[in-house]
Amino acid sequence: MLIGGIEAGGTKFVCAVGDDHGKIVDKITIPTEGPDETFQEVKKFFKTYPIEALGVGSFGPIDLNTKHETYGTILNTPKTEWKHYDLLGRLKADFPIPVYLDTDVNAACLGEYLYGAGKNADSTLYITVGTGIGAGFVYQGSTYQGTSHPEMGHIFIEKRGDDRFTGSCPYHGSCLEGLASGTAIEERYQVRGDLLQENETVWELEAHYLAQAIVNYIMVLSPERIILGGGVMKQEKLYGMIREKVREMVNDYVAIDDVEELIVAPELDDEQGVKGAIGLVFRDEDV
Amino acid sequence: MLIGGIEAGGTKFVCAVGDDHGKIVDKITIPTEGPDETFQEVKKFFKTYPIEALGVGSFGPIDLNTKHETYGTILNTPKTEWKHYDLLGRLKADFPIPVYLDTDVNAACLGEYLYGAGKNADSTLYITVGTGIGAGFVYQGSTYQGTSHPEMGHIFIEKRGDDRFTGSCPYHGSCLEGLASGTAIEERYQVRGDLLQENETVWELEAHYLAQAIVNYIMVLSPERIILGGGVMKQEKLYGMIREKVREMVNDYVAIDDVEELIVAPELDDEQGVKGAIGLVFRDEDV
Ligand SMILES: Nc1ncnc2c1ncn2[C@@H]1O[C@H](COP(=O)(O)OP(=O)(O)O)[C@@H](O)[C@H]1O
Ligand SMILES: Nc1ncnc2c1ncn2[C@@H]1O[C@H](COP(=O)(O)OP(=O)(O)O)[C@@H](O)[C@H]1O
Ligand SMILES: [Zn+2]
Ligand SMILES: [Zn+2]
């Protein structure tokens, strides 16, 4: 059985055809234009494959509450052509097969859970630290979905006394994303993150904020595995710094069996999103 | 079918016999002594009833990871006779019927979900603000359980600039519990919470901290219902203050359909714990 998967991102759509063992048969990347132009290319790619179902991990915010009339619709986004766009309606119109829809981060988390760094972990959290900060969660084999989708990047944490930056989040100022995303780093130091590589205080502060957030996720979700991805995590020294700070901050209040096993890097390079999108088909409910 | 339920607390054990519709047939409250004295009373109470299964919501911290050798054991607790006590072993020895074990807060949450303020909510969070702060969570009809149990009272939040108190948590200082539990209020103002009733700035700060924490829980779990109980919430004005602050802090980043429906008071008086303990029998897996 062939399954289609789409990682629908704000800058690119990755489309792939694969199976339920994580094998990818074919794959393309399409720059994200308006919905019509983009879906024309998407349809063209899938046309030659007899896919029997389609899984989609989408950028957001997107309404995933099945009780809402706007279910499946992109909500507020700076990309005006996609604002309030009925993504699920379009998918169903273009593909008369079962369609499964979730967030991009949930799909990425499911990909790592099925085939990567989350394998055999009953509860897997996947955090991406990039332009923004987002997270997906897999619990008991399925992606987590509350009444709306989580927006874990926007939790409040304690700003450190020596940090004079007011935060980059347009909604909350100094929420986690406002203090620790790639955008926040760029605004705080007025230079791109990759150019700050040698500046230790930058990464010490970054690790401090990410560790605080991870402690909060541990206290709330008690995940078995926490995967940290995204552009900022290309600073690989962050992993060790974060592990140490998480251990210090938890201060033995909850048992952490092995922090090296708990906090890890992704394993699927850039394919967790599309592999997870395909995985949605056999892990989520049909919509 | 008759089911036994125990709310095993640090100061009292509430034992009840009931059915799977929330009806309570008989109930007693036993002060918590050492394990032997306590279980002698517990056994005596249940002896006259032909209960077919037993559900227990226990104080903690307790090891609920089935992969651990210490599964079912009370961990660190100031109550020395219960420290490292094999609670599940004792329950199984005393009651040769199926036994279901969870945390006290998860049981309370399940009770409210089944029969109280969480009815018909797909995901229900129950927070108790008392001597400490704890929370239980019901997701898709069952109590939530990560690799360990959540300790949601110990998340980090932002301390307000005008608050000079360093926090009462022995592990984290100014975590949520350290800033906003009944103990924290007492230590900050050197007087018991109920005597501060008329002091508006006390409750304004309290609502500020609880609202921040609730925003974090919303961002991570996206619950459909949030129930606030415990001694501190006897200051009923807190509900309105918290709702308003949560709305302000979320700042429309995620949609809150109706904050009065989202953040509510418990409905089962002091019976959510024991009714939820009975509910564990038909909602959780046998252990
Ligand atoms: N080597 C690096 N070191 C630090 N920051 C980086 C590095 N590479 C990219 N970034 C930052 O990561 C962000 C982009 O994250 P990425 O995950 O690639 O994209 P997006 O979040 O938009 O999907 C930018 O803010 C960029 O400055
Ligand atoms: N009316 C009240 N106003 C404010 N605080 C109160 C009130 N009643 C009790 N408290 C506080 O609540 C805490 C006890 O919480 P409770 O839920 O009753 O017990 P526990 O958490 O030990 O199970 C104490 O710190 C007490 O000071
Ligand atoms: Zn934010
Ligand atoms: Zn604490």
Short description:
Chain A is α/β, with parallel strands linked by helices. The mean pLDDT of chain A is 96. Chains A and B meet through helix 6 of A and helix 6 of B.
Whole-number average pLDDT of chain A? Answer: 96
CATH class of the largest domain in chain A: Alpha Beta
- Count of individual domains of chain A: 2
Please state how the strands of the largest beta sheet of chain A are arranged side by side: 3-2-1-4-5
Given helix and strand content, the structural type of chain A is alpha/beta
Which band does the percent of strand residues of chain A land in? 15-25%
For the record, what is the CATH homologous superfamily label of the largest domain in chain A?
ATPase, nucleotide binding domain
DSSP helical segment count of chain A = 9
| Low confidence ranges of chain A | none
**Largest contact between chains:** A-B, 40 and 40 residues
Helix content of chain A: 25-40%
N-to-C SSE string of chain A, H for helix and E for strand: EEEHEHEHEEEHHHEHHEH
What is the CATH topology descriptor of the largest domain in chain A?
Nucleotidyltransferase, domain 5
Query: Could you tell me the radius of gyration of chain A in angstroms?
Result: 19 Å
Question: Assembly state here?
Answer: homodimer
Give the CA-CA distance, first to last residue of chain A. Answer: 19 Å
Number of strands of chain A: 10
Name the CATH architecture of the largest domain in chain A.
2-Layer Sandwich
Family (chains A, B): Belongs to the ROK (NagC/XylR) family.
Cofactor (chains A, B): Mg(2+)
Enzyme class (chains A, B): transferase
Keywords (chains A, B): Magnesium, Metal-binding, Zinc
